[in-house]
Amino acid sequence: MQPYLSVPARYRQQTNRFGGLDRNASIRQGQFADMENLCADQYPVLSTRPGRAFDRFPGRTGALYSGDGLIRVEGSALVLPDRRVELGLTEGEKTLCAMGAYVLVFPDKKYASLTDPEDMGTMEASFTPAGRITVTPCTLEGGDRLPDYVQEDSPEEPENKSFWLDTSETPPVLKQWSGESAMWITEETAYVRLEAQGIGRDFRVYDSVWLSGAGALDGANTVWAREEDWLVLTGILGDTESLPQTLTIARRVPEMDWVTECGNRLWGCRAGKNAQGDTVNELYASRLGDFRNWESFLGMSTDSYSVSVGTPGPFTGAVTHLGTPLFFKEDCLYKVYGSYPANFRVQCTPCRGVQPGCGRSLAIVGEMLYYKSPMGVCAFDGSLPQEIGEPLGMAPFENAVGAGFGGKYYLSMEEKGADAIYVYDTFRGLWHKETGLGARQMVSCRGKLYALDGQGRVHCLRGEESSEKVEWMAKTGRIDGWEPERYLTGITLHMVLAPYAKAEILVRYDSAGPWESVGAVTGRGERFRLPIRPRKCSHLELMLKGTGQMQLFSLTRILQKGRDGL
Question: In angstroms, rounded to a whole number, what is the distance separating the alpha carbons of residues 279 and 399?
């Protein structure tokens, strides 16, 4: 009988679906404990992210916004898709918001029209005369209307339609004689005309203004008619008077921490000191269709709106989601329901709010709102937020900035001073990690994703051709070196490297000692299989790193039968 040797049975365990990043202690096969510049664009294949276009514009940018094209703040100007608008903006980071055909710049409170090159300026307006102002009782249209009588007692034998300023009441009441009914009819509203050179230049009809230094006219008022050198306000006078040059007429916009547009109104919030030095904790809405007016309270459906809220602490973010303005604090959010001031209703929901310093992480992908909370990354569908950042571990992230693009949520965050971009695939629930660039703002515009860094440079993260040679890395979790009755004899990687791209494979055994290089390869654009022969160990970790485009199709473990793993 001829002798023969038995061949030990071999088993193969193939992983061909790669699940992204998981920084927790125990992770599933196909996931990675750490990575750099990898993505799920070709899922289930693991691939290198596309190249980026760096420093897209020569000037220093202060803000980004997405409209019909990319809108930027550059120096003191607002750069629209078709022109540059000089607004005299101050230095520092800005917030841009759109309302109708206008782009608004905060905290400068400036605006520019997207359609009319001549329509631009300041939301606020103020006038202080060089000399005294003449004030005359007038009609709504601005014509003179001096009272025929100014006295306490009712005039005797008045003529039809004559006016009497009844000074027996405080404040005085303007009345008109009706010959038909033989009685004095109280005028519901009396008007005065203020005249001074240039007084009406910066105001518009129906502007809500605030007067100070005007004696009896001090306080809130409304512009009912105007020309360049006069305007009509509400007020009662018995004769033409003059006011001192200390008078100030102002159209005011409140100081706001965050702004958002909803329902053809601009909404904002403020917790802290307002422009007048008072401590406030309030939500605001502009007049309907008018971002310039925030103090219009005439009892109409188009009025402005303001309300105080009770929870302490600063506002940490604001956004419009599913047709509702949302205002976040660290531990709650406010929703405003309704369509006009009389039926506006504010609801406070205690929940995971937006982490301080992470207000720019708010981003909508599809119908879902994503943001960075103090406890992790949350997804909000309109009811209550849900945690989605568990694979990122318990690291103390801060200064989060986010944007949605192509069904993914891009989130730049800092961890102990070092920043990275974490990409959440909303369809598959996977996280991937990319090299950070200190993003301060991110926007998606016309099929491109832009990021503004801390030096005022704009980078295109997605959507533009790039010659960047991407440096990438992937580190697996623990790969067991033995199982009951079987032990690990080999690992095979099935991958593609672009021409002249490079890759190196390193191994670390039993979570100790240095990483050992076990192979390096230069790509030719073809698929290849790279075998690895590990030594006996309890477990090992693989690290793949390289430069250039890479695709990893599968990782196969080869196990051989052996007693007690020996």
Answer: 26
Do 307 and 438 lie in one domain? The reply is yes
CB-CB contact of 283 with 310 (8 Å) = no
Residues in the chain: 566
CA distance 306 to 153: 42
Q: Is residue 487, in this structure, part of any structural domain at all?
A: yes
Last residue of a domain, one of 122, 143, 161: 122
Do 305 and 449 have their domain in common?
yes
The structure tokens listed for 64 are 């980004």
pLDDT tens column, 266-312: 999 999 999 999 999 999 999 999 999 999 999 999 999 999 999 99
3-state SS of 368-408? Answer: EEEEEECCEEEEECCCCEEECCHHHCCCCEEEEEEEEECCE
Phi, psi of 361 (to 5 degrees): -80, -15
Cα separation, 505 vs 542, in Å, equals 7
Do 394 and 326 fall within a single domain?
yes
* Helices and strands per DSSP (H, E), number in the chain: 0, 54
Choose one of 190, 222, 251: the last residue of a domain. 251
Q: Is residue 350 part of a domain?
A: yes
Using DSSP bridges, classify how beta strands 173-178 and 31-36 pair: parallel, antiparallel or unpaired: unpaired
The encoded tokens of residue 327 equal 């205002």
The tens digit of pLDDT for each residue in 365-407 reads 999 999 999 999 999 999 999 999 999 998 899 999 999 999 9
Say yes or no: 293 and 371 in one domain. Answer: yes
In this predicted structure, what is the pLDDT of residue 2?
61
d(CA 227, CA 403): 46
Q: What is the pTM of this model?
A: 0.91
What is the count of structural domains for the chain?
Answer: 4
Coarse DSSP helix, strand, coil percentages of the chain, rounded to the nearest 5 percent: 5, 50, 45
Q: Are 73 and 89 in contact (CB under 8 A)?
A: yes
What digits encode the pLDDT tens for the residues 119-165? 999 999 999 988 788 898 888 999 888 888 888 888 888 888 888 88
- 220 phi and psi angles, rounded to 5 deg: -75, 145
Whole-angstrom Cα distance, residue 20 to residue 2?
Answer: 53
Bridge partners for 225 per DSSP: 232
The pair of three-digit structure tokens given for residue 223, joined into one six-digit string: 């512009």
Range of the domain at 381: 258-462
* 321-356 per-residue burial string, b: 16 or more CB within 10 A, e: under 16: beeebbbbbbbbbbbbeeeebeeeebeeeeebbbbb
